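User: Thanks for the earlier help. One more: Maternal effect embryo arrest protein. Can you show the sequence and predicted structure together?

Assistant: Of course, both are below.
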Amino acid sequence: MSATSIHISALDGIVNVNSLFTLAVFIGLAWNPTDPTNSLIDSTQQPGCSPSPKVAEDLVAFHVYSFSCFLFSSLVAMGLKQAIRMARSAHNEGIHWAFDLAHVNKVILRIGYVVSAAGSVCGSVFLMLALVNVVQIKLGVLGCGESRHGYGAVVPLVILVPVGLLIYVSTVFYAFTR
């Protein structure tokens, strides 16, 4: 497999994962957090466990931030992919002047990878924060005495997502230094 194919496959992977996460964001935005039938807590039995309107506002804001980051990351990755294809196509056709115009600088390519990866990481963090707010809306505020189910949902989320992001960032850093 050529280096160009590896680069294009990596960029395809970024775009595909971002697309899945963007779908999750849209599903999250379609859900109405202020609908009283969506909550699993009984505010009459657990006073003080109902989330404030700020939690619902944060939920929507984090979804929008997440969407923005994933879209940014995908657009950068698709732009890099297109530049690689243009350079490869011009080189294979023997059009030297077009190859010179479409030449992909390896430094710019690496910076593009890092920028795209940073967008994906930020999008993942914002999506995780949005999910924490979903848990608070559905199961009650985390500071509430009856929120053991909320902690049961949030603790794995705030452990597994950062570990996955650490692995992803380490892999990107490794690829960046090679």
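User: Great, one quick takeaway?

Assistant: The chain has a mean pLDDT of 78.
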